[in-house]
Amino acid sequence: MTARESEFAIEARGLVKTFRTARRRPGALGMLRALVAPERVSTTAVADVSFSVGHGQLLALLGPNGAGKSTTIKMLTGILTPSAGRASVMGIVPYRERVRNARNIGAVFGQRTQLWWDLPARESFRILRDIYGVADGDYRSRMREFDDLLELSSFWDTRVRHLSLGQRVRCDLAAALLHDPPVVFLDEPTIGMDVVVKEQVRLLLRDQVERRGQTVLLTTHDMTEVERLAERVVLINHGHIVLDGTLAEIRTRFGSGWRVNATLVQTEPATGRCPPGLRVVRQDGARVIFEPDGTDGVAPPQALKRVIDRYEVTDIHIQESDLEDVMRAAYLDDRADRELDGELDGETVA
Ligand SMILES: Nc1ncnc2c1ncn2[C@@H]1O[C@H](COP(=O)(O)OP(=O)(O)OP(=O)(O)O)[C@@H](O)[C@H]1O
């Protein structure tokens, strides 16, 4: 099957990854025991992950620390072989055909550079140009484009080891996109960047998807990034998929979806006189946030009218619920499910 014949650019079906590591006990005796009779323990980083990404889609893979996001990406880039399940990227099984897969993908691991540590970043770009056989004209125009957006030329002649984290990740991003791969994996690509550079990276990614039709799989802990970029979100927790949907679907399922933000003339608690179908989420003096209480399925225009009818209002608008709150609700829901299934043992709530 050729790359374009496969319906999805990225497919993961029942992926599992278990690591076997030596357990280290404390103290000198523990160290000795580890040398003589090492005790091995299994960690299941990815327990059961299935999802697919269509050609030209940008999907955000989200989850708390240790959820299994990086391990999933490593299986999709061919760095790790799954313990069970299967993966395909542009019709290729990444861990079986690493070299063919490498031509189709670009990858940025924000925590770790792909560049040559002791060389100036520009030297790494030239080496990558030769490895991937990028034509001189294409190389020059892409470097110009990356420089325009990411302002690399002020530091690309500095050795990579001397770059700041944000500068280094910008160079990593350019290196990953240099051969214009159809699929890009970005594991925390804006780590260490200031807000201005973050915005530049978002512009670059949007352009890669909209103009070049690239497929992007992104992990991030930055919800603004998700709101700005992702059409779809897959949420992973403890190596399991918790949800898979558009931001709108996720908001509907785990958040009220919207809230009424009002500034009242009165400053006493609004709770006692709350309009029907609404409850007070927060009140700070005259500023009150209401959300639907779930009793009558009130819609945003009705909710505005009910608040205005009940109070004297100086300012009022509908606000979409905060994505951080929605994600937290989704984790807590998953946690409650697993508690019921008896899977959790003494774990603290994030
Ligand atoms: N090589 C390894 N050997 C043993 N355990 C590992 C290895 N790599 C990852 N793990 C464990 O697997 C789990 C998932 O790790 P992973 O790096 O995939 O999480 P993550 O979702 O990317 O987290 P973060 O948001 O912190 O980057 C963690 O408990 C981690 O300690």
Task: Tell me about this structure.
With 350 residues, this protein is of the alpha/beta class. It folds into two domains: 3-11 and 50-251, Rossmann fold (3-Layer(aba) Sandwich); 256-320, 2-Layer Sandwich (Alpha-Beta Plaits), CATH 3.30.70. The chain contains eleven helices and 13 strands. Strands 5-6-7-3-8-9 form a six-stranded mixed beta sheet, with helices on both faces. Strand 6, helix 7 (195-210) and strand 7 form a beta-alpha-beta unit. It is globular and about 70 Å long. Mean pLDDT is 87; it is low at 346-350. The structure holds adenosine-5'-triphosphate. Adenosine-5'-triphosphate binds at residues 19, 21, 43, 45, 63, 65-71. Residues 10-263 form the ABC transporter domain. Its main location: membrane. It is a peripheral membrane protein. This is ATP-binding cassette domain-containing protein. GO terms for molecular function: ATP binding; ATP hydrolysis activity.
Which stretches are poorly predicted, pLDDT < 50 over at least 5 residues? 346-350
The succession of helices and strands, N to C, reads: EHEEHEHEHHHEHEHEEHEEEHEH
Shape: globular
Small molecules bound: adenosine-5'-triphosphate
Tell me the name of the CATH class of the largest domain.
Answer: Alpha Beta
| Helix content, binned percent | 25-40%
Major sheet summary line: 6 strands, mixed
Number of separate strands: 13
Trace the largest sheet across and list its strands. Answer: 5-6-7-3-8-9
GO molecular function: ATP binding; ATP hydrolysis activity
GO cellular component, one term: plasma membrane
Membrane topology: Peripheral membrane protein
Protein name: ATP-binding cassette domain-containing protein
